[in-house]
Amino acid sequence: MTYDVVVIGAGPAGMSAAIQLRKAGIAVAAVDEQAAPGGQIWRGVERNAGPVSAALGADYQKGATLVEAFRDSGAEYLPATQVWQIEEGWNLFLTSEGKARRIKARAVLLANGAQERPVPFPGWTLPGVMTVGAAQILLKSGGMLPEGEVWIAGAGPLPLLYATQVLGLEGRIAGFLDTSKRPGLAALSSLPGAWRDIPGLLKGVRWLWDLKRSGRMVRGFSDLHAEGEGRLQHLQWRAGNEQRKVRADVLLVHEGVVPRIHETMALGCVHDWNSDQNYFSARLDQWGETSRPGLFVAGDAGGIGGWLAATLSGEIAALGIARYLGGSPDADSLRREAGLDERLSRARALRPFLDALYPPPAEHLADEVVVCRCEEVTAGQIRAVAKVSAPDPNAVKAATRCGMGPCQGRQCGYTVQALVAEVHGLPLADVSFFNIRPPLKPVTLGEIAALGDLEEA
Amino acid sequence: MFKSVHDKPGKASDMTVFVNGAETAAWNGETVASVLLRAPGAERRSTVSGEPRLPYCQMGVCFECLVIVDGVASTQGCLVPVAPGMRIESQHGPREISK
Ligand code: FES
C-alpha cells in the first residue's frame, strides 16, 4: 500500500495531524501500537465511563472529542500495529497479529510520544516495583487500583495527578517519597493554572496534608532501596543519620518523561541535547521537519510539552507536510490565521517553570545497581569498561552487552551516557547516545517469513 | 498487587483467560501485562540471573512483559488487550522464537 503520509502514533499529536492532513485531502495511514486511539494520555477514553472516567478528570475526558474527530477523519487507522523498521524513501515495515508487511509513503510523521525516564536504584527490578505511568495505564485500561501498602517515589506532576485519581476511586496510598528539590510538590499544587481540575486539586492537597500529618510524606532522604524475597516486601531509605524501613507491596516511581528517539536515532537525524531535562530530541525546523527531508516529528517525541502543545504541533506539522508534498502553498497563512504559534507558546508557558522545579535526578549510582534490566549489567561493570575505553556508550555496549537486549537501550541509554560522562569528567552533552540500529522492535523469523509471502503476492 | 474497580463481590468478571493453564478472571480493556500482575507464578525469569520479573512500564519500552500469547512467543504483553479464552504462558528468556 502507498500513502501520501504515514503517521506513527495515535495520541494527541498524531490524531491532530491526521485530521488536518485529511482536511487537505491527503491520503493518510495512522499506525499505532495500541488497540484504540488516544495515546497514553487518553488511553481507553472511548471505553471508560462512570466513576473511572470521573476520577481521571476533565483533561482526560477532553480526549473523547479528538478521538471521535480522528475516527471520522477518513485516515486509515492501523491499530495494534508496531513499526519495526523505517527506510528513507519511505518504506515502513509493520507487524500486527504476528504478521509483517510493508507500506510506502511520501512523507512520515513520528508522533510516538514519550516514555518515563528510567532511573535505576537498588531493587528496581523486583516484582512490585513499576512506574507511576504504568500504574496509571493500568487504571485507564482495566480500572486497576494498587492494593496493599502502596508507596510512590519520585517527582513531577504525574505522581500527584495519579494519587488524586486513586483517591477519587477510594484507593489508598501509604506514603510518598518526594525526590523533588524544595519547594517541591506543595508549590506545584498551589500554582495557578497548573491544575484546572479544582476538585481533583483539593483531593491532592488534602492527601498531601494527611501524609504530612501522619509522617508519611518523606523529603530530603537518600539511598532508597527496594527489598524482598522474589518480590517487593520492604523499602529502606536514609533520613539524616537514621535508617528507615517500611513494609511495601507496591512501589511506583516517576522522574519525569523523555521523548522517544529510537526512530529518529536509527535514521541518523541530527539531535540536540536538552540540558534542562537531560534528553536528546531530533532537531526540527519550524514545520517539525527533521534533518531527513520528508521525515517530520510532532508532540512529545520532539521535546516534552504536554498534550495541548502536542495537538498544536501536530497541526503545524500537518501544514508543513502538505507544504512539503506541494499541495499547500498557503501553509504560512493557514498557520497564521489559526493562531497556531500563539496558542503553542501559551500551551508551553508553564514548561520552563516545571523544568526548573523538577530537574532530572542526579544521585550517585552505587556500583552494585543493575542499570541494564535486559542483560543485567551493573553500574560498576559499566564504570570499569568506561575507564579503559573512549568516552562512548557504544564501547560499553560492545564490552558488556548493555543495551543489546530486547529493549535496545530504552531503559539504560541515558544512565550509560551519564556513567560514561562521570568516569571521563565530561559534561553530559559531550557524550552521545547508543548507536541505534533497526529493527526497532525484536522481530521473529515467523514474521519475516510472512513478509516474504506478502511481497511476492 | 492490583485489583479492578469493576471487581465487586457477586459480580462476574468480563472474561476468563488462562495463565500457564490456570483460569484467571480478566476485565475489558486490560492488557495481558495487566493480568500478569495478579496471576500467581506469572513472573518471567530474567535471562542472566534467573530472577523473577514483572511488567515495569506498561507502555512498550521495557520488554519485561514478554510472554507467549496463544502460541506466539516474545509478544509484548502490554500491547495486547485480553480476549476471552486467551492462553498466556510465561516465557523464560527473551530470545525464543515463535513455535
Ligand atoms: S511492560 Fe514494559 S514493554 Fe510491556
Give a verbal description of the structure:
The complex is a heterodimer of chains A (457) and B (99). By secondary structure, chain A is α/β, with parallel strands linked by helices. Chain A folds into 3 domains: 2-115 and 258-353, FAD/NAD(P)-binding domain; 118-255, FAD/NAD(P)-binding domain; 370-426, Arc Repressor Mutant, subunit A, CATH 1.10.10. Chain A is built from 17 helices and 22 strands. Chain A has helices at 12-23, 50-56, 58-61, 63-71, 132-142, 157-168, 184-189, 198-214, 262-266, 307-324, 331-337, 340-347, 351-357, 379-387, 393-400, 413-424, 445-456, and strands at 2-8, 28-31, 76-78, 82-87, 91-96, 99-110, 114-116, 129-131, 144-146, 150-155, 175-178, 217-219, 222-227, 234-239, 242-247, 250-255, 257-259, 271-274, 279-282, 295-297, 370-372, 377-378. In chain A, strands 1, 2, 3, 4, 5, 6 and 20 form a 7-stranded mixed beta sheet that branches. Chain A has a 5-stranded parallel beta sheet with strand order 8-16-10-11-12. In chain A, strands 13-14-15 form a 3-stranded antiparallel beta sheet, with no helix packed on it. In chain A, α6 links the parallel β10 and β11. In chain A, α14 packs across α16 (413-424). The mean pLDDT of chain A is 91. In chain B, the strands form 2 sheets. Chain B has a 5-stranded mixed beta sheet with strand order 3-2-8-6-7. Chain B has one helix at 32-36; strands at 2-4, 15-19, 22-26, 44-45, 52-53, 66-69, 72-76, 87-90. Chain B has one domain (13-90): Ubiquitin-like (UB roll), CATH 3.10.20.440. Chain B contains 1 helix and 8 strands, in the order βββαβββββ. The longest helix of chain B has 5 residues, at 32-36. β9 (144-146) of chain A pairs antiparallel with β1 (2-4) of chain B, so a sheet runs across the interface. FE2/S2 (inorganic) cluster binds next to loops of chain B.
